[in-house]
Amino acid sequence: MTLTAPLHPRVRAETGPDSEREGRYLTWLLAAFPLWWALGMGVLVIPFVAAVAAVKLLRRRSIAVPPSFGWWLLFLLAVVLSLANLSVDPPGTIPGNWFSQLPGATFRLGFYCCCTLIALWAYNLVVEGRYPKERLIRLLAWLFAVTVAGGLLGTFAGGFEYTSPVEALLPKAVAADGFVKSLVHPAAAQTMDFLGYETPRPAAPWGYTNTWGNNFAITGVWLVVAAFCLPLRTRWRLAATALLCVSLVPAVYSMNRGLWLGLAAIAVFAALRLLVSGRPGGMLALAGAGGAVILLIALTPLGTVVQARMDNGHSDDGRAFSSERATELVLAHSPVLGFGSTRKTLGSGESIAVGPTPECPRCGGRTLGGNGQLWQVLFAHGLAGTIAYLGFGLSVLWRYRSDHSAIGIAGSAVIGLSMVTMFFYNALVTPLLLTLFSYVLLAANRTAIPGTNTEKP
């Protein structure tokens, strides 16, 4: 088995029943995600698909590698090397040892590798013509519909939750763990009270409100491509338009400022790319749609929700403290490889004596590296990991800056989104996988099989 450069655009597609069957695992991973969530598997199904991907890749005579993939491999190398520092206790953090820090570090490394294997396998399937780009785009668009449905459930039935089959099989002590529960316990929303009263914030089927918001933005990009840039009957385009309108309800009621900022960044990025590519009509259409959305929110009760959220910063002080403290510690004590994993602080920014209480369960004990992908990479994997991580994203954006097709703009928009949301969203697990799928589409679009209909805008 050898690693090869991206396949030539005229590479001969392999066809036949075996070719179609190989991609069914990828289809089931995405198409059946609501089922996995309902069963309590959720992200836990990803390692199973990754195992299939690993076997399929190992059986190949050669593996096509997308451009800029070397940066990502350097990042994974930094993640592995940083494990050596798990036993280091930075000043002002709760003491631990190498073994106590290992579970969290193993989780992150394992899922980084799982997402990488699945994305690399998907890239090979797509460039060989075994898995049509259109199918992957439509599956990502389907996940937007799933995200909106989960958002509506969380908005109007925020208390909905139940014990899943997987959760019921676990020992009670294991199932009661907060982190394990977030993986296996289906819940429609996370309930918070930062407005002075309890408010459900949509989370289904992604586990956390911030993950829901991140995936909403990523899959929303591909819904637009699937509905308006691929061959589709008029009734389905009308349905997609209606879905986008309805999606404003959970998007606003999620009170997710990171989502709002991310959507604005995507709109600006897409508008600039349309203008540069000589399509001012598309830019004006996008601006008109954005203006209609703002007007709709302003003239409905949704505007009141937005204003209430903007008046209540909630986590701003805690996030600022965690980011500053994480940066200070890693630069002072382990700048190259970081500390291998996250740590919890002793106290808070106000006092070392501050800790969680029944009235304030989130007080004190801030997680360093838990308030954004950038801070997690910097704290856990140091400057080596941070440079490689940023190098990957920026290299992809630069390499495909001239691809003004629908896939080129959409894929670049998702990569650019990850560069924006890394300041306040953690990427693992599903946002990273969806972002890597966007990278796969972007890279495969330049090595497309002749005869496909998604190469041109």
From TrEMBL:
Domain of life: Bacteria
Transmembrane domains' residue ranges: 35-57, 69-87, 107-127, 139-160, 212-229, 236-253, 259-276, 283-302, 374-398, 405-425
Record keyword Transmembrane present: yes
UniProt KW keywords: Membrane, Transmembrane, Transmembrane helix
The keyword Transit peptide is annotated on this UniProt entry: no
Name of the molecule in the record: O-antigen ligase family protein
Organism name: Glycomyces buryatensis
